[in-house]
Amino acid sequence: MTPTRLDHDALSDALQAAGLRPTAQRLAVYDQLAAMDQHPTAEQVFRAVRPRLPRISLATVYKALEALVAVGAVDRLGAESAAGPARYDARGDRHYHFRCLRTGAIHDLPVQYDPKLIERLDPALADDLRSRGFQVTGYRLELLGYQDDGRDA
Amino acid sequence: MTPTRLDHDALSDALQAAGLRPTAQRLAVYDQLAAMDQHPTAEQVFRAVRPRLPRISLATVYKALEALVAVGAVDRLGAESAAGPARYDARGDRHYHFRCLRTGAIHDLPVQYDPKLIERLDPALADDLRSRGFQVTGYRLELLGYQDDGRDA
DNA sequence: ATCGATGCAAAGCGTTTGCAGGGGT
DNA sequence: ACCCCTGCAAACGCTTTGCATCGAT
To answer: What residues in chain A have per-residue pLDDT under 70?
Structure first.
């Protein structure tokens, strides 16, 4: 389940290819995110990188995450329950998630990603949508439910 | 694709069964939501019910939607892109969504819902998760992409 | 008479933005 | 020298909350 993690060179290249600079903050935010097993919130990433970069600000973490999302190194998972923060995923390979409706915590599922799942659901769907002006770029599948108390929140 | 819509009696019963009163505001919010073909934001519902209930407040719409979600008459679809409002769905039968990553608009997909999709993906998954302390209550499948400009936003 | 629901205003929270200063190329 | 990025603080948008009043039982 550990996703393919980009090393600094690969990530730097990806950032530069998008006209963005591979700053220490961006690399550190990515490293930290990739090292955390849960999918953390921006705040959690902020607290986790602070020891390495004591002067980093929360706003910079947000901006760094935005840059990483822009180059496709990170996925942003919007909050489901209201008033909850978004979660971030240093995605390597694509995968599915389980989402706890109480805490908002997100876990990876130990199931292989199926690139043809939509096609399998309905072979005509993508074409159908395209002809109606919708461009499909991907899909997201989440299990919803609750996890026992006491664990990671 | 038109979902089974609850009439006032059924909705009133559902609310009362949960210890909630079937107020005019709640019924109107539900009716309005069910009558809208897109999945609107709370603000959009608010503006749409105003003609019928000129004195209703946005806070009451939020509270009404919360009550409707609590009794299972409405689904709340969290914002995907940041800084966007949540959308609400007067769900009848379960279905899948297409989500526009630019505008946040959500459309129903003309595909039948598959209750056994997860089981089909991996028959052992649900049991596996259960044994690890995760209780699965459902799943959500969304196509992601972009819709041409000019339409409903 | 009770008890929940409403409507208003204000607070709350996560996130973004404006801007002066700093650092890499 | 340039331009992007940072960090701070303030603003922002969406949602919730506190509270007095209202309305239905």
So the answer is: 1-3, 81-83, 149-153
CA dihedral over A33, A34, A35, A38, signed as positive or negative: positive
Tens digits of residue pLDDT in B50-59: 999 999 999 9
- The answer to whether the CB of A92 falls within 8 A of the CB of A3 is yes
What's the pLDDT at B17? 96
Residues 6 or more apart whose CB falls under 8 angstroms from that of A132 comprise none
B19 CA, C4 C1': separation in Å?
10
User: Does residue A75 contact residue A69 with C-beta atoms inside 8 Å?
Assistant: yes
Instruction: For residue B111, list chain A residues with Cβ-Cβ distance below 8 A.
Output: 121-122, 125
Residue B41 is classified by DSSP as B
Give me the mean pLDDT over the B33-39 stretch: 93
Cβ distance A125 to B142 less than 8 Å, yes or no, reads no
Report CB contact under 8 Å: A110, B121. Answer: no
Report how far residue A95's alpha carbon sits from residue A111's, in angstroms, rounded to the nearest whole number: 7
pLDDT digits (tens, 9 = 90+) for B127-149: 999 999 999 999 999 999 999 86
For residues B117-135, b (16+ Cβ closer than 10 Å) or e, as one string?
A: ebeebeeebbeebeeeebe
Q: Which residue is nearest to nucleotide D6 (CA to C1')?
A: A60
For position B5, what pLDDT does the model report?
A: 84
Look up the pTM and report it: 0.90
Q: Identify whether the C-beta of residue A67 lies closer than 8 Å to the C-beta of residue A76.
A: no
Q: How far apart are CA A105 and CA A79, in angstroms?
A: 10
Alpha-carbon distance A92 to A95, whole Å? Answer: 9
